[in-house]
Amino acid sequence: MVYVSGDVAGGEYTVAKVDYTDRAKMPSVGMIVTKISSLLCLVQVSGEVKNLYTGLVPGKYCFVGSDGRLVQAVPSTPSLGVRYSQPVAYALASNTLLLHMWLPTIRTAD
Questions:
Q1: Which of 5, 37, 91, 104 is surrounded by the most beta carbons within 10 Å?
Q2: pTM of the prediction?
Q3: E-state strands within the chain
Q4: Residues 6+ apart with CB under 8 A from 10
Q5: What is the pLDDT of residue 82?
Q6: Total structural domains within the chain
Q7: Around Cβ 20, how many Cβ atoms within 10 Å?
Q8: Residue 9 vs residues 5, 15, 18, 43, 80: alpha-carbon distances, Å
Q9: 66 SS3 class
Q10: pLDDT reported for residue 76
Q11: Residue 12 belongs to what domain range?
């Protein structure tokens, strides 16, 4: 999962991996679906994504996890005491997600 981390450069957005403990690195705006080179990738912001994740439980929401990848349970609060919980997708099948980045990001603390 990525967020917009800088200005548009050469007609392309600059993105970086999200961090659910840092508000400046949230919310997620999309998922890298293709890595074209070490500096260029294709980011999908909505719609179906197949075969990037497996073992999903259909009917459950997916959240930004502690490592910037998806998890199917609300992530636990880290030792820092604050996290930003953002549901970003819904599992349609064990290998299919419906991305929806516009759900609210919620700040939680211990």
A1: 91
A2: 0.85
A3: 2-9, 12-17, 31-35, 41-44, 46-50, 61-64, 70-71, 82-85, 87-93, 96-100, 106-109
A4: none
A5: 77
A6: 1
A7: 27
A8: 11, 11, 20, 15, 34
A9: coil
A10: 73
A11: 2-109
Residues 6+ apart with CB under 8 A from 39: none
Reference 70, options 40, 95, 47; nearest CA is: 95
d(CA 45, CA 66): 20
Cα dihedral across residues 109, 66, 23, 95: positive or negative: negative
Contacts of residue 79, defined as CB under 8 A and 6 or more positions apart, other chains included, come to: none
How far is the C-alpha of 107 from the C-alpha of 85, rounded, in Å? 6
Q: In whole angstroms, what is the distance from residue 3 CA to residue 84 CA? A: 13
